[in-house]
Fold this protein.
Amino acid sequence: MTNDAKAIPAATHGASGEIAIPGDKSISHRSVMFSALGSTPVHITNFLHAADCMSTADCMEALGAKVVFQKEDELTVTGNGLHGFREPASFLDAGNSGTTLRLLMGLLAPQPFFTAFTGDASLHKRPMGRVAKPLRSMGATIYGREGGTKLPLAIVPAEGQLHAISYDSPVASAQVKSAILLAGLYADGVTTVTEPFRSRDHTENMLKAFGVQLDIGEKSVSLHPPKELTAPASIEVPGDISSAAYWIVLASILEGSDLLLQNVGINPTRTGILDVMKDMGADIAVENVRMSGGEAAADLRVRVAKLQGTEFGAEIMPRLIDEIPVIAVAAMFAEGDTVITGAGELRVKETDRLQAIYDQYNKVAPGSIELLEDGLIIHGGRPRQDATCFSYDDHRIAMSLAILGHAGSGIHIENADCIAISYPTFYDTLAGL
């Protein structure tokens, strides 16, 4: 094993107790970024102090915002107004965070100064053309490798104000939609984005909290450019359902389990995993529903259940794309086959997640996974064994492998420390169960 390999033992009893879910990664990004667009202090609590979100915080500081941490998960951000960004002194480093890079491309495309972006080796491989194309149609000037579609990227001042557009996105992507809407804050009219399916709407929710006028339809959103943003005094970030997903699956498949997951965000554009797991027969009770930071949140009680295979595809994918690796683990413990289609987006994440699932999960339960061009066929109930698996430096693959091994016969995960990207305390929480 490599130096940062992790041995996960097989469970000797069910998972029980309570887990406080760390702050939502998507909302944490936006809380800092949008607060930097205001001109009054915003106090942010339950912020996810993980590598991706810290990349956003560092970039906003480089653009002139004041970012002060009171605790790891609590900070105050003070911006200089909608038109108060300053030219960064060096490259803006997005690290491993596609959210940071794509949203900042939209936010900085209208600015009257030069910006250059970089990131880690993984982010240099990820496609940015789907964001650059609509921004260019608004008048932005973007340069980079492979026709301006990959890092390093540079944005030079546009000739005049960006133009408002009505954009029919070929993909349902919250990052693409958000980049266009953020550019639309500075455009010369109403900017509209229409998607084939509705993607997660954290950007819309937070823009409304900052006083921006939006017209929201079933699959479209239109933004009216404001003169300034009115920042709220505080934002409480709900727990991340993508982080809760690992415990939802573990408690569902491990005999004797009964877990209470506290303060989980249940935004309807993010709860596809609850729908799929319940369709498989999971025992999930939604309790204590409330509003947290402008988003719905609840406690989830999850008990072990006998799962059945299921089928789902493109229409639900925007609501659970990040949870596919751990849903695949649940499917391996279910009775019968699970068929997943419409998941081609997983091939351009931190790694090719479909290929990673096929290559690594089959080491644990040979013959369990069939690979499709845009999905997977998972044969449940195959015998499982201890194995040494590789994470590809992908946090979601690493955590899903940990759940697979813990509920099975144990596992050794190479390059296991990449979980710091989104859930630094994951292994400690797993050990504490």
